[in-house]
Amino acid sequence: MGDTEEVEVKRAELKNKIFLRALKLEVEGDELLEIIEDIHPPPNLEGLDFKGPRLPKWCTTLTQLRKLEFYGPSHRRYDFSCSCLPPLGKLPFLEELLIWRVETLNHVGHEFLGMMNDQTSIAPLTIFPKLKSLEFWYC
């Protein structure tokens, strides 16, 4: 990715697009994935359609997200591959979650639910409180 494209991505200032409700991003290349980590969409985003080697870290901060579609890359030549999923169980309004063709996904564990490995509390834990549809395809 060239400097011009990087400047364009940053200049978009997505975090300031308060009326943006849905976003579709396609990442081809490790360099672009690093830049995508810095864009931070607005917190009121309701739909995210993402294609790339792994979900950006900021996706777990989108507390109004209702629909998330994550498509793995069309090839495996990335340094940043997705071996496990981020804590999407903490997204309070998520209704639809589709994980498609993430061939590097090794397991779906407690971190996906938003639980810590050493969590010993017996307090009730609410995960995916609004989830209606969860699909894994070709993973």
TrEMBL record:
Gene3D superfamilies per record: Ribonuclease Inhibitor
Domain R13L1/DRL21-like LRR repeat region: from-to ranges: 6-100
Annotated Pfam families: LRR_R13L1-DRL21 (PF25019)
InterPro entries, alphabetized: LRR_dom_sf (IPR032675), LRR_R13L1-DRL21 (IPR056789)
Positions of transmembrane segments: none
Protein name: R13L1/DRL21-like LRR repeat region domain-containing protein
Organism lineage string: Eukaryota, Viridiplantae, Streptophyta, Embryophyta, Tracheophyta
